Amino acid sequence: MAKKKGKTYLSWLFILILGFGGFYLYQRFIAGAVKLKDKNYTYIYIERNDSFEDVLSDINSENIIEDPKAFEWLAKKMKLDENIHAGKFRINNGMTMRQIINLIRYNKQEKVKLSFNSQIRTMEEFVEYTADKLELSESDIEDIITDEQKLDTLFGLNPDNCFGAIVPGVFEVSWAVSPEEFFNNMSEVYHSVWNKSRKNKAKQLGYTVPQVISLASIVQSESIIESEQEKIAGVYINRLNKDMPLQADPTLKFANGNFEVRRVLDVDKEIDSPYNTYRYKGLPPGPICLVSTQAIDATLNYTRHNYIFFCAKPQLNGYSDFSATYEQHQKYRNQYRKALDKRGINR
Predict the structure, then answer these.
(1) pLDDT, tens only, 194-247
(2) Which residues partner with 87 through β-bridges?
(3) How confident is the model at residue 26 (pLDDT cuts 50, 70, 90)?
(4) Which CA distances in Å does 2 have to 6, 12, 13, 20, 180?
(5) Could you count the other beta carbons within 10 Å of the beta carbon of residue 21?
(6) Domains of the chain as residue ranges with CATH
(7) What is the tens place of the pLDDT at every residue in 307-344?
């Protein structure tokens, strides 16, 4: 009887030890290991070529793991040191160590959204914005946009007109994307726009793709209304065919870097810049804004007419008055100027 009681006692003791051991292991490795203060999540950023020690250091520096030694032990057991992926990883409050390890091990990273829109007005702004969002440095980007051979291979562009390589829109990429991968992705998007059909249309019009992009950027800057864009493109093509200067006000804003002004003055026409289309004939070296597919198509499908002048309507509603003679244009221009004066738009 005493032996039976002894065996029963030992059995219960063994069960308790297993229970406490299991609870200890559960608390240490399975239960929520992440305790964030005053927020529901945070991010860790793993750079290209980071070592296992670098990853541990990054995680520990955020003070999100209660037991770093336990995390390191489990990470080695789960072979994280052999399966490190670079990128941006979201760590949620209450995550377990196992979940964090699997997040990195299986490359479940959160992509970065890049918004290329009208807020990016120059190549310098593009470089600064992109470098701020990704692991890429400004020099990483500049090395490619100043490389004539790479630009020609990727886009058929050069350093003067490479602003045209940027297609407006939202793009999702890895935070740790390499310069080569990033520009290869841009190239794919660019060529999806500049497909065989659009390239053939440009050729039929007698223009290169970069020339169409530059012209479309001016057209887009004049109006966002597609029907107006087609007529405006027709005006500029007529002027080019007659060897007349484009005299496009938006190119002066770009040349002077004064993007916010609503009224162009005669003093703006004095700047010595290849983008000053009052001073220099032909198209500027490159686009003056990020060009939408709509503006490209409006330019490729421009309206054929005999107008060589246009001026914004005095209602300032996005539409223009078109004319074939300078005398008629002067009348429209005077109406437009009076409308600006009445609204107090002096700059």
Answers:
(1) 999 999 999 999 999 999 999 999 999 999 999 999 999 999 999 999 999 999
(2) 46
(3) very low
(4) 6, 15, 16, 27, 78
(5) 10
(6) 30-105 (3.30.1490.480), 112-193 (no CATH), 204-342 (no CATH)
(7) 999 999 999 888 999 999 999 999 999 999 999 888 88
pLDDT at 6: 54
Task: Evaluate whether 158 touches 148 at the Cβ level (below 8 Å).
Answer: yes
**Which tens digit of pLDDT belongs to each residue from 152-185?**
999 999 999 999 999 999 999 999 999 999 999 9
Three-state helix/strand/coil letters over the chain: CHHHHHHHHHHHHHHHHHHHHHHHHHHHHHCCCECCCCCCEEEEEECCCCCHHHHHHHHHHCCCECCHHHHHHHHHHCCHHHCCCCEEEEEECCCCHHHHHHHHHCCCCCCEEEEECCCCCCHHHHHHHHHHHCCCCHHHHHHHHCCHHHHHHHCCCCCCCHHHHCCCEEEEECCCCCHHHHHHHHHHHHHHHCCHHHHHHHHHHCCCHHHHHHHHHHHHHHCCCHHHHHHHHHHHHHHHHCCCCCCCHHHHHHHHCCCCCCCCCHHHHHCCCCCCCCCCCCCCCCCCCCCCHHHHHHHHCCCCCCCCEEEECCCCCCCEEEECCHHHHHHHHHHHHHHHHHCCCCC
Model's pTM, two decimal places? 0.85
- The vertex-127 CA angle with 162 and 131, nearest 5°, equals 140
Contacts 24+ apart (CB under 8 A), 316-323: 316/343, 318/223, 318/224, 318/225, 318/228, 319/223, 319/225, 319/228, 320/222, 320/223, 320/228, 320/231, 320/232, 322/231, 322/235
Q: How far apart are CA 285 and CA 267, in angstroms?
A: 22
> How far apart (Å, rounded) are the C-alpha atoms in residues 118 and 120?
5
Please, what is the average pLDDT of the chain? 89
